[in-house]
From TrEMBL, chain A:
Name of the protein described by the UniProt record: Transporter
Location relative to the cell: Cell membrane
PANTHER family assigned to the protein according to its UniProt record, in alphabetical order: CATION_ACETATE SYMPORTER ACTP (PTHR48086:SF6), SODIUM/PROLINE SYMPORTER-RELATED (PTHR48086)
Organism classification: Bacteria, Bacillati, Actinomycetota, Actinomycetes, Micrococcales
Coiled-coil region: none
Residues that span the membrane, as ranges: 6-25, 45-68, 74-94, 115-133, 153-171, 183-202, 233-254, 266-286, 319-343, 364-384, 390-414, 426-449, 461-484
Family the UniProt entry places it in: Belongs to the sodium:solute symporter (SSF) (TC 2.A.21) family.
GO biological process terms on file: plasma membrane acetate transport
TrEMBL record, chain B:
Protein name, UniProt field: Uncharacterized protein
Superkingdom as given in the UniProt entry: Bacteria
Keywords, alphabetical: Membrane, Transmembrane, Transmembrane helix
Ranges that cross the membrane: 53-75, 87-105
């Protein structure tokens, strides 16, 4: 029975995604429809869409699993996911919208006037996007395997195909509706079972779980030199500063009508995320009550999906499990389509369209190239997800955040607020950050398991990579005043002047 | 005044058009737009005000997070105190921090919009067509 219900729930979610995506196909007429939904999305719809896109498999399954595993120290994880938007709000939200750029590479070029930096940013967008897509595909495999027994690659393949179809069909306009709907699907799918489980738990006498001290109390090292304080701090840095550098997050800001709307959108996003993140700890704690230990070979990522079956007998448990499976799939699909969308946009703009134009002498315009890009954007991470299977969902996501924090955070924050940022400085900081974060991630995977300071520093690199990238950018900029772009002041006028003030020359026409 | 053979007497000419408005015929927005030195001063002022607001939000955030962590590390009793049926760390990190973040975000947006409104009033008063 569980299988039947779950398959129905997953199919429903997939069909909704493709159907709403198809609806967008009819509405998508111009290039700006494809990339930024014609810039006419209202703050409320946009906030639902941003939250729907942001709450990934890592949030729906992974957060509860990690808190279940490691306890109170991992509560910092959802906190960081939410606070990241506060940092994004105060540092870059309105100026990013006012920059008038479509993508992160567009911003880099508009601010610094350098094709080289644009290329670097494009490479990083693709890298971060793929790094973040891999765990989505893995989560799909896990979820489907648990509820139906299908092999892991099946779930991943389904998500890959649905996402490629949805993105290739209608671009950003269709994705916006899909995302907004999916936030509410996810919240309902996680909240209803949580309340049922809580009610049952209270009725049965509110048993407290038997847990080790390191689970219930903060900053207690499991082994001698685990450095839990450093790890938590570094994770917070990665999440707070990485959020603004995630390619699928910023592209949403370009769909706001103006800078003021971009700010208001973010406030609603913080509220929606906060509401959602109240729930995973409930699953983690109840998991400790009902499933004190997991059978060997079962990953804690699946705790959310296992719990209803353990607690509720018969058809009720089946329905709740199916609901969670559907919600998990919605989470995967929305994040994966958002990521695929940004990666597709960059691949198309930077790499495919120029080649295609050269090959065909400019004949092959239109959206054919866009659809080729959509296929490429999805196939490569799908392959990677088969190869990177042993690495946990949250670990890969953590690396994506660290990489974003060490590269885009300095570029965006200095770019928006500091007029003396030079091309050489921006490029140097960007490269140093990217190399350091990538090296740390590679070392952790290759040389695992590392312990002590080496292990902590390499597994949570953001706390040193990000300041390093910032200082390199600042020092090199100060040393090379000659390569400060000449039109810096004009760009600054555009980024910071409120829309109410009429400017003839400094604004771009949307 | 002596007559000098039909030549009119000299008159000292001074400017005394007291009613004339000595002022700028062009709005400050044009200065901003064309990046004159004056426009630059105004832009710098706007950016400084916004950045100060942003940094104060960030420092409040860092202080709150670091302060709570230090409290947990330094005062072991705080780790196990139970409030409203939940241990303090779980209550703060699992529940209370979300409405606090939202309130901070809302306050920030109001302040930022106020700075922009004041700036806009100075640079291009509402009476002008915009």
């Amino acid at each position: 029975m569980t299988q039947t219900f779950s398959i129905i729930a997953v199919t429903l979610v997939c069909l909704t995604t493709v159907a709403v995506g198809g609806l967008g196909l009819r509405l998508s007429r111009r290039t700006s429809d494809f990339y930024v939904a014609g810039r006419t999305v209202s703050p409320r719809l946009n906030a639902s869409a941003i939250s729907g896109e942001y709450l990934s498999a890592a949030s729906f399954l992974g957060v509860a699993g990690l808190i279940y595993d490691e306890g109170v120290d991992l509560l910092w994880l959802p906190v960081g996911y939410t606070v990241g938007y506060l940092v994004l709000l105060v540092m870059v939200a309105a100026p990013m919208r006012r920059s008038g750029a479509y993508t992160l590479p567009d911003f880099a070029e508009a601010r610094l006037g350098s094709i080289g930096i644009r290329r670097l940013a494009a490479l990083l967008v693709v890298a971060i996007g793929w790094l973040y897509l891999v765990p989505q595909f893995q989560g799909a495999g896990l979820a489907l395997q648990l509820v139906t027994g299908a092999p892991q690659w099946v779930g991943a393949l389904i998500v890959a195909v649905v996402v490629a179809l949805a993105v290739g069909a209608g671009g950003m306009r269709s994705i916006t509706f899909v995302q907004a709907v999916q936030y509410w699907i996810k919240l309902t799918a996680l909240a209803v079972p949580a309340f049922v489980l809580l009610a049952l738990w209270m009725r049965s006498g509110s048993a407290t779980p038997e847990v080790p001290v390191s689970w219930a109390e903060p900053f207690v090292a499991v082994s001698g030199d685990d450095h839990p304080v450093y790890r938590s701090a570094s994770m917070m840095v990665a999440l707070c500063l990485g959020t603004m550098g995630l390619p699928h997050v910023l592209v949403r800001y370009y769909t706001n009508p103006d800078g003021v709307a971009a700010r208001r959108t973010t406030v609603t996003v913080v509220a929606l995320l906060g509401a959602f993140y109240l729930l995973p700890p409930v699953y983690a704690a109840l998991g400790r009550v009902h499933l004190p230990s997991l059978p060997t070979g079962v990953r804690s990522d699946t705790i959310v999906l296992q719990l209803p079956g353990q607690v509720v007998e018969g058809i009720g448990g089946d329905v709740l499990t199916a609901m969670l499976a559907g919600g998990a799939f919605a989470a995967l699909l929305s994040t994966a389509s958002g990521l695929a969308m940004s990666v597709t946009g960059v691949l198309h703009q930077e790499f495919i369209r120029p080649r295609l134009a050269r090959l065909t002498g400019g004949d092959a315009m239109g959206f054919g190239g866009f659809r080729v890009a959509a296929a490429v954007a999805v196939i490569i991470p799908f392959g990677l997800s088969r190869w990177m299977e042993p690495i946990g969902i949250a670990t890969t996501v953590g690396f994506a955040f660290s990489l974003a924090a060490a590269t885009f955070a300095p570029l965006l924050m200095l770019g928006v607020w500091w007029r003396r940022l030079s091309r050489a400085g921006a490029a140097a900081g960007f490269i140093v950050g990217a190399v350091a974060a990538t090296a740390a991630a590679t070392a952790t995977v290759v040389a695992a398991p590392l312990s002590g300071w080496a292990g902590a520093l390499l597994a949570n690199p953001a706390a040193w990579c990000t300041p390093l990238a910032f200082s390199v950018a600042v020092v090199v900029s100060l040393a090379t005043p000659g390569s400060v772009p000449r039109d810096t002041t004009r760009v600054m006028v555009r980024l910071h002047t409120p829309e109410r003030i009429h400017l003839d020359h400094s604004r771009l026409i949307d | 005044m002596a007559d000098r053979g039909g030549v009119p007497a000299r008159v000292r000419v001074t400017s005394s058009r007291r009613s004339a408005v000595a002022g700028r015929s062009r709005p400050l927005a044009t200065d901003l737009d064309e990046q004159t030195e004056l426009g630059d001063v105004y832009l710098a002022g706007l950016m400084r005000a916004q950045l100060r607001l942003s940094l104060s939000v960030l420092s409040a955030l860092v202080l709150a997070v670091a302060g709570f962590s230090v409290l947990l590390i330094a005062v072991p009793a705080a780790r196990t105190t139970v409030l409203f049926g939940l241990p303090l760390p779980w209550l703060v990190l699992g529940v209370a921090i979300y409405p606090a973040t939202w309130l901070t975000a809302r306050t920030y947006v109001r302040q930022a919009e106020r700075i922009e409104a004041e700036f806009a009033d100075v640079v291009s008063p509402r009476s002008e067509p915009s």
